[in-house]
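Re: weekly structure request thread

Next one in the queue (251 aa):
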Amino acid sequence: MSDHSQIEWTDATWNPIRGCTKVSPGCKHCYAERFSERFRGVPGHPFENGFDLRLVPKALDLPLRWRASRRIFVNSMSDLFHDDIPEDYVARVFAVMRTAAWHQFQVLTKRADRLAALGPRLGIPDNVWIGVSVESADYKWRIDKLRSVPARVRFLSVEPLLGPLGDVALDGVHWVIVGGESGPGARPMSPVWVRAVREQCARGGVPFFFKQWGGVHKARAGRELDGRTWDEMPSAGLPGSAPGGLRVVAS
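Done, posted below.
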């Protein structure tokens, strides 16, 4: 995979694992699966095996070769806490992130149970942000699992937002991303659902990032909410930021 990313909230992607399996409704129209399966059977292609889960140890040292500081989304094409990934391999990924302390790593999972089980044993360094996906009210339990993880920055990816979340307990959460589903068969997202999350973030002082409306024509739908973009980020752990608490950085 290219090191450059078009994902709005990161600078680069790093995939020491490729492929995944579906675990919840948010996975139904997985962009990573759609992309990967286009290349199944193409000899020598990184996704010659489609979206089958596989380790890519030759990619482990990639962040060590990037000398300029970047925000790096870890496993944009997989899930680091998939049950079939050996714990010792997860630990190797964390060892690289710990060594590459000049980067900020963003780890996102839907496997909140395994995250909570392994998190305390991994020794999560301050430059690793840990997040869970929450696509509907049925999956708010993942937030409780996230809160148990000893990470300096914990975040939510509310994408694709498939319904109203209702009240969200944001204590112990430092950043919230919201976005709609994109691509073929994209399920619609109501502005009412998005505003409800944004208002709760504002009340709690939690940075809010609106990624996209989504839909079949993602670019046409854009990413403005109520006449502006929302690109708030947590500053903790960023180069030059003060140790301790968080403040909102709006761009």
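Helices lie at 31-37, 62-65, 87-99, 112-122, 141-147, 191-204, 218-221. The chain has one domain: 12-249.
Next request, please.
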